[in-house]
């Protein structure tokens, strides 16, 4: 399935990655480390990139963070990690970028929040200072408007106008329109400050799905700039996933959104990479990108009182994530592979036949046989313990990858 990109945008280069201009939708994420912690931040950036993040943003809020950025970039490049790094600036970005030119040079993009640049005349001056640095270093910027930090002068002016003219508009509608107005006005200021059209990306992030849909539909009609799409402060776990995907999925299906982040609140001690996996799965579910082999798995019912199929599905999903970085370097098209781990005879054989490799485990009271299908044909029947089944199935996956996908030239060692 191909979704037509209805929002025709200008292409913007962020490092070696193009955003907009007909390029595939790009996955982004953000570190949660103290950027002054060079080793910790570099390690998390590398982990996010390995998980599938194609652009990573870091907080640059204090001099120590700005001073650390060049060394973080050097360490990553030394490890072969070329993921573009974005600096997230609030309140003092104009000072940090001018006082730490090595930071400005090392970053691949600057994120500016118009509501947090300053007030009155100083806001425009300080915004122009950041644009001047971007112009000097030929860096793109993201003009990132947030509902929680919207320019209050603009909001109060529009609220008063609504009252004086008896327009009867809700406060939510006014705030949504203010976000779009702030983004468009700030884009105009950036162009006046000397930035090119192909140096500007826009976002207008809110925390409610219906508001996000409203804002981005309006934004897509008002500009040709690439749009960074995301539901801010989406929340934890299931809530964050459902709220993000309900709004972002609809907008992406309408062709709106050129780069995305799923802003999940991780569990204490949780894995920051979960938000990357979520973004990749969202794009893959819509047929916009393919990042990794997909696993169809049985949800379970009264026929599947054993947990074996659940354990096997979880293990295979983890195995794929572990092996995918190497497969991606070595084989072309492996991300399109499909697998199925099913729990009983009702849908098991049918779903297994529809996958490249599928296994149908026995349900309660069924014979202890596990038919395996490869490209729709019954290839073998497995029996044994869970560990034996898991190892055999992983072996089949490895054999399928090596025999069905072309080796990339860079992965072929020249003969002596």
UniProtKB/TrEMBL annotation:
[4Fe-4S] cluster binds at residues 298, 301, 344, 351. InterPro entries: Dihydropteroate_synth-like_sf, IspG_bac, IspG_bac-typ, IspG_C, IspG_TIM, NO2/SO3_Rdtase_4Fe4S_sf. Residues 295-380 form the IspG C-terminal domain. GO terms for molecular function: 4 iron, 4 sulfur cluster binding; 4-hydroxy-3-methylbut-2-en-1-yl diphosphate synthase activity (ferredoxin); 4-hydroxy-3-methylbut-2-enyl-diphosphate synthase activity (flavodoxin); iron ion binding. It catalyses: (2E)-4-hydroxy-3-methylbut-2-enyl diphosphate + oxidized [flavodoxin] + H2O + 2 H(+) = 2-C-methyl-D-erythritol 2,4-cyclic diphosphate + reduced [flavodoxin]. One of its GO terms (biological process) is isopentenyl diphosphate biosynthetic process, methylerythritol 4-phosphate pathway. Pfam families: GcpE, GcpE_C. Keywords: 4Fe-4S, Iron, Iron-sulfur, Isoprene biosynthesis, Metal-binding, Oxidoreductase. Its EC number is 1.17.7.3. Residues 11-279 form the IspG TIM-barrel domain. Binds 1 [4Fe-4S] cluster. Pathway: Isoprenoid biosynthesis; isopentenyl diphosphate biosynthesis via DXP pathway; isopentenyl diphosphate from 1-deoxy-D-xylulose 5-phosphate: step 5/6. Its cofactor is [4Fe-4S] cluster. Belongs to the IspG family. Converts 2C-methyl-D-erythritol 2,4-cyclodiphosphate (ME-2,4cPP) into 1-hydroxy-2-methyl-2-(E)-butenyl 4-diphosphate. This is 4-hydroxy-3-methylbut-2-en-1-yl diphosphate synthase (flavodoxin). It comes from Luteitalea pratensis.
């Amino acid at each position: 399935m191909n979704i037509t990109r209805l929002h025709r945008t200008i292409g913007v280069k962020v490092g070696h990655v193009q955003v907009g201009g007909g390029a595939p939708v790009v996955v982004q994420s953000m570190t949660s480390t103290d950027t002054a912690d060079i080793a910790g931040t570099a390690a998390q950036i590398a982990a996010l990139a390995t998980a599938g993040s194609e652009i990573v943003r870091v907080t640059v809020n204090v001099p120590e963070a700005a001073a650390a950025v060049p060394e973080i970039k050097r360490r990553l490049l030394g490890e072969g990690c070329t993921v573009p790094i974005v600096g997230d600036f609030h309140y003092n970005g104009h000072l940090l970028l001018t006082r730490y030119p090595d930071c400005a040079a090392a970053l691949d993009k600057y994120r500016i929040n118009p509501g947090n640049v300053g007030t009155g005349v100083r806001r425009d001056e300080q915004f122009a200072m950041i644009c001047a640095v971007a112009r000097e270093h030929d860096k793109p910027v993201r003009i990132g408007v947030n509902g929680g930090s919207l320019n209050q002068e603009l909001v109060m002016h529009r609220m008063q106008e609504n009252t004086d003219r008896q327009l009867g508009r809700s406060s939510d509608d006014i705030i949504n329109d203010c976000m779009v107005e702030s983004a468009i006005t700030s884009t105009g200021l950036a162009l006046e400050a000397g930035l090119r059209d192909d140096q500007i990306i826009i976002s207008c992030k809110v925390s409610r799905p219906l508001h996000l849909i409203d804002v981005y539909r309006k934004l897509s009609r008002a500009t040709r700039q690439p749009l960074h799409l995301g539901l801010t402060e989406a929340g934890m776990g299931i809530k964050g996933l459902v709220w993000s995907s309900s709004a972002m999925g609809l907008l992406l299906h309408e062709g709106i959104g050129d780069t995305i982040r799923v802003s999940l609140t991780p569990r204490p001690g949780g894995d920051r990479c979960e938000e990357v996996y979520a973004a990749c799965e969202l794009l893959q579910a819509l047929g916009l990108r393919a990042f990794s082999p997909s696993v169809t798995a049985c949800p379970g019912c009264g026929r599947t009182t054993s947990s074996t199929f659940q354990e096997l599905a979880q293990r295979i999903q983890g195995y794929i994530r572990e092996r995918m970085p190497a497969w991606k370097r070595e084989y072309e098209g492996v991300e399109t592979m499909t697998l199925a781990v099913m729990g009983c005879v009702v849908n098991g054989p049918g779903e297994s036949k529809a996958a490249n490799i599928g296994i149908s485990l026995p349900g309660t009271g069924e014979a202890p046989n596990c038919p395996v299908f490869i490209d729709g044909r019954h290839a073998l029947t497995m029996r044994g313990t869970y560990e034996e089944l898991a190892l055999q199935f992983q072996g089949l996956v490895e054999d399928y990858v090596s025999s069905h996908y072309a080796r990339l030239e860079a992965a072929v060692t020249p003969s002596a």
